[in-house]
Amino acid sequence: FSPQPEPIRNYSVLHGARAYVRVDQSRPTIAMGLFFHGGRLFEDESNYGITELMLRTMWRSVKSRWDYQTGEEVPRGQEVTLSAEQVIMKLEQLGGQLRWVNEPDFFGFILHVLSRNQDQALRLLVDIVERPLFDETEVQRARAELLYELRHRSPRPVDLAWRALVGEHVYSVPPWGRVETVEQLTPERLRDWHRQTIGRQYPLVIIVGDTDGSTLISTIIARQFHRREIQRTFRAQIPQLPPAPRQQTATSRTPALAIGFLVPAHQVVEREIFDVIEQILVGPGGQLTESLRDRRGLAYRVGARFDPRALASAFFIWMTPRATGQAEALAEVRRYVQRLVTGPMDEEMVALGINAAISAQRDRLQAHPARVLAYARRAFLGERPVDVEHYAERLGQLTGQKIHAVAAQYLKWERRGVGRLQGPSRPRTTPPSPVTDSEEHRPSSAAFR
After folding, report:
1. What is the number of other CB atoms lying within 10 angstroms of the CB of residue 154?
2. Is 327 left (phi over 0), alpha (psi -120 to 50) or beta?
3. Are strands 106-114 and 29-37 parallel, antiparallel or unpaired?
4. What was the pLDDT predicted at 68?
5. Residues 329, 296: Cα–Cα separation, whole Å
6. How crowded is residue 34: how many other Cβ atoms within 10 Å of its Cβ?
7. Alpha-carbon distance 123 to 80, whole Å?
8. Structure confidence by residue, pLDDT tens digits, 371-388
9. Alpha carbon of residue 367 to chain centroid
């Protein structure tokens, strides 16, 4: 017997943190997220990657104001310093997993833990967010790890397509930054970035799982977050639609291709319509997958995704093509995009796409951390977290005419952006690995996994 989850409720603190709680007692676990606006959105050519390095370093040395045995707050001056090994040990004792989130418009942490340990776990999470020490030795270790990944990480075609669409805008920079800027980051710069971002805003708190509602908010969140100065306005450059097709190219062991279409302003209905378009093209029985991979054998893998962001979104079609026939594969993509634009839409295919999109969302949101992240994305895109619950209802109201209108407005082939990875001269004999790894599934620390 699994009790039905309760609707998500708003428990925001007056003149404090925004907080949402969804009670779900179907399993004895709880996921807690603390998120902040900005991060990567406000990086520039002098500090690309600083948010990623800050998140990787915050948990490695922490000043704690809690006695974890009694649950009481210790007096000032008697705080205890926790090393990375001690933080990991506490997480293991609590049955928890910590991951950091570095999205284009926001950042933070998600802690997934056994519900019986939720109080201690949330206190530890608050310590990590509010009181990191940025120990110099630990910063050097984290920076060395990040630099190693940057130097050995293959470029992603979707990142190249973003750059083709928006040029040098920060949206075109991968979350890990760039080697030349990460090399210059010091503990002092991380502390300053922490003060500018986390230290000047209240968090968005999202809790999902086996909890009794607002208790964690009133006993811990409301008492632990205090700000002397709040930054209420933010400035950022809005990406511009390219006047003509553009392409970015890089070399890689595996050839890959991504075609992107910029959506200048994010809207709820467009997100849902593009989810259906994705399923029509590459979902179960998808037309593009059937043509490129199953029937004609022009690509090993074919995918599509809508990447919603606050200042501009984009829809991508990507593939890992065979060494020969890439031009033919690109022509096939164009043919199916033009079919969406010119219409009319086949209602049976629309119904299949809607059902597939609803099913895909339900699969994604089965785990508590995934639901926490979905709520956070809605909130930072200017929507309501509760909109996640009404996703299927709104998809059921879509028609082929509405989908065709959105496709005709945004999927303009003459304004596409292309990201291309040039592969080796000799063709591969085995299928390559996927070319896009969604940021929400990026590995965190090996110790936490």
Report:
1. 14
2. alpha
3. antiparallel
4. 67
5. 9
6. 27
7. 13
8. 999 999 999 998 899 999
9. 15
What is the value of pTM for the model shown? 0.90
Q: In Å, what is the CA distance from 85 to each residue of 122, 260, 368, 382?
A: 18, 43, 26, 38
Give mean pLDDT, residues 185-191. Answer: 97
